[in-house]
Amino acid sequence: MTSAASSAGSRPRVVLGVAGGIAAYKACELLRRFTESGHDVTVVPTAAALEFVGAPTWAALSGKPVSAEVWDGVHEVPHVRLGQTADLVVVAPATADLLAKAAHGLADDLLTNTLLTARCPVVLAPAMHTEMWEHPATAANVATLRSRGVLVVEPAEGRLTGADTGKGRLPEPAEIFEVARDVLARSQAGSSSATGALDLAGCHVVVSAGGTRERLDPVRFLGNRSSGRQGYALARAAVARGAEVTLVAANVDLPDPAGVKVVRVESTAELRDAVLSATAGADAVVMAAAPADFRPTQLSDVKIKKADDGSAPSITLQQNPDILKEISTHRARPDAVIVGFAAETGDATGSVLDLARAKLARKGCDLLVVNDVSGGAVFGSADNEAVILGADGSAVDVPHGSKAALAHLIWDQVVTRLS
Ligand code: CTP
Hints:
- The protein is of the alpha/beta class.
- The chain has helices at 26-36, 47-52, 55-62, 78-85, 96-104, 110-117, 130-134, 136-147, 173-188, 229-240, 268-279, 323-329, 352-363, 403-418; strands at residues 13-18, 40-45, 88-94, 122-126, 151-152, 156-159, 165-169, 204-210, 214-217, 220-222, 244-250, 260-265, 284-287, 294-296, 317-319, 337-344, 367-372, 383-390, 395-402.
- The chain has two domains: 13-188, Flavin prenyltransferase-like (Rossmann fold), CATH 3.40.50; 204-299 and 314-418, CoaB-like (Rossmann fold), CATH 3.40.50.10300.
- The longest helix is centred in the middle third of the chain and has 16 residues, at 173-188.
- The chain is elongated and about 85 Å long.
- Residues 268, 287, 289, 291, 293, 320, 322-324, 340-343 line the site of cytidine-5'-triphosphate.
């Protein structure tokens, strides 16, 4: 066996496998994203994939010759060289047939040979009809591949070929790219071995994101400025670490992350219902959402009109349930790790950290991620800065960085507590 990994300073080597499904055309965009962000990509389609998108397209977009067979350029021994020298293998779309071959170690073309020789992380993004995805044979093949450390991304739900809808759609290429890039970055950072990087494999995690809205009348609501970006970054990072992820999203205008079950909600009451039902079997829950603390006591079913005398209506509010406190004090699973967020500004009664420590104790969660939001800097931005407080007294300072980086540091803390 030759060592994989490209030499220092060279571009990361990615093998993009494309199996024979209609979603093969979407792999063109995935390829572009890899090449435009500095990856050295070799496309390896199957013969069936070439029925959907021809070799000239792959060759033009990758800048390299393309073959589906082991018989081209035999003097370069491509059937072992490509896998051995890759830093990452991604197959999108992966068909039921490709999953079966990979699970059973068949090697009758260049892609399946490459999968057998690769020692780098392997990401498979299946796409097929719902019946095929749900077939016990496919389920068993997926389980086998996952048990060997392959990251099999759950397909999305939605429109399939023809008039069908259901589970089996290829996630958006931009989102597959995010997962693949994350897997590659973690592997290159040497944070873990190719298989150990999937340290949330077998875990079900629930993440809430966004800001809830409380309706006043058919056109107005009380809301807040949460964009949902941190929760979405947490969901993406958990997928890249092998977790089954449920994302409860309150009014978030972002594309669905690949491999994530997204449950959309509007109000705090709906958020509570969705979180409680998903939490029953969860290993970890991260409440990154900003639920409205209050809702109008009365919801008007007609638009509230201005009064001619210039007076303004009074709105009375009542408190919403505290979901984090509820799931922390009445735990569905005593061993689950529960994480809250606190956006604090500090006040006359205490500093940001004083208030956060008190909040951690009050809520009863295991970890509290504290953002200093004096000046409103965090909302909607791509970056974040935080302290992760533990109920055990720990405090991890997270310097200014991306929300994705913070997400991984949060999962690091969760993983330590899960094990
Ligand atoms: N949270 C919740 N349910 C609520 C309000 C907040 O589950 N009704 C969760 C948030 O998702 C977050 C954490 O509690 O993880 C802290 O939110 P924050 O708004 O800072 O806490 P509050 O309890 O509302 O405290 P404060 O009085 O400081 O606003």
